[in-house]
Specification:
96 residues, four-stranded antiparallel sheet, 4 strands, globular
Length: 96
Amino acid sequence: MPYVLTLPNALKRWKVKILDNELLFEEPHVTIVFKTELWRFGLRSRTFLDDYPRPDKLPQMLMAEIIANVATLCDEWNKRFPTNPVSQDNGDKAER
């Protein structure tokens, strides 16, 4: 079962998930979902893994929630994928 980050009501149409079927050769990441659009945000690099859809379409409040909960997201990734762990202290890299 995927992990779903609990978001404030103002972001109720958005989802931030760690899916169960991720490829282990990819960077650990969360998948951000809005309607039919998907963004992948790397937990190691703290950057977006894809150029499309454009990351600037995401609400600042959503990105603030992801950054505020990055330790929890790293823990949840590590529980699901112990052979591809992510450290929680990867520096303060800004998202693009």
